[in-house]
Design goal:
- It is a single chain.
- The protein is α+β, with helices and mostly antiparallel strands.
- The protein has 2 domains: about 70 residues; about 150 residues, Lipocalin, CATH 2.40.128.
- The chain has an 8-stranded antiparallel β-barrel.
- Strand 7 and strand 8 form a beta hairpin.
- Helix 1 crosses helix 2 and helix 3 runs parallel beside helix 4.
- The radius of gyration is 18 Å and the shape is globular.
- The two termini are about 30 Å apart.
Length: about 230
């Protein structure tokens, strides 16, 4: 929490100092860039030039929202719709959403295309978590994979343990609350291992070398699932 307060304070002070020189839009953009750089601890993050309130709101909303929501408890019990691959940078137990960039877009598009080939498609795949620690991923009609999970409600640390078909793959990560849903994030290499296993089980041939190259220099990168809670 001290980390969060420090970043938010830096954001406010930086914005105030720059206001007189570059106007509100430029001040907030510069403050967001500085805060992102400090929080990510030297990880490469691109903040594009803000040209309107919508993009500015995305930058600041993603920054402050994810920092605060990392510490908000969440319950996974229920049914969720899969909405694509989530990307974030981890730094000292803080999750910071990557700003809009060509890198982010290319990576997410590649991973989403891989998952779609095995039936885990944006807007249609379903994640179900039960109170007794069971979970499943389905394409709406057929279960693609399943296993057990544990969630620490104090830290939001989550462990997904897949069954025999997925070679008992274990994914350890963090659940971060988002408006209307959550993100389950884990180490990028482990997430890629999950994708490769899913492709193998589905009997598909997909060359994942392009993503492996993208991940080679991505220190602290977290990947996972964007989920929206169903009513």
């Amino acid at each position: 929490m001290k980390k969060i307060i420090t970043i938010i304070a830096a954001l406010t002070i930086s914005a105030s100092a720059a206001l007189a020189q570059g106007g509100l839009l430029g001040a907030l953009k510069d403050a967001a860039t500085t805060a992102l750089g400090n929080a990510a601890n030297d990880a490469t993050t691109t903040v594009t030039n803000a040209t309107g309130s919508e993009e500015l709101g995305s930058i600041l909303g993603g920054l402050l929202g994810d920092l605060l929501n990392t510490y908000t408890t969440v319950s996974l019990t229920g049914t969720w719709t899969y909405n694509g691959v989530a990307t974030a940078i981890s730094s000292e137990n803080t999750l910071v959403t990557l700003a809009s960039s060509a890198y982010k877009t290319k990576l997410e598009n590649k991973l989403n295309s891989y998952l779609a080939k095995v039936g885990i498609k944006q807007g249609s795949a379903i994640f179900t978590f039960t109170e007794d620690g069971q979970f499943s991923i389905s394409n709406g009609t057929k279960v693609i994979t399943s296993g057990t999970y544990t969630l620490d409600t104090k830290t939001n640390a989550v462990v997904l343990k897949f069954g025999k078909v997925y070679n008992y793959l274990t994914m350890e990560g963090t659940v971060a609350v988002t408006p209307g849903g959550c993100q389950i994030l884990c180490n990028a290499d482990k997430f890629l291992e999950f994708i490769k296993r899913a492709i193998t089980v589905a009997g598909k041939f997909v060359d994942t070398s392009a993503v492996s190259t993208l991940l080679a220099d991505a220190n602290g990168l977290q990947l996972g699932f964007k989920l929206t809670k169903q009513n």
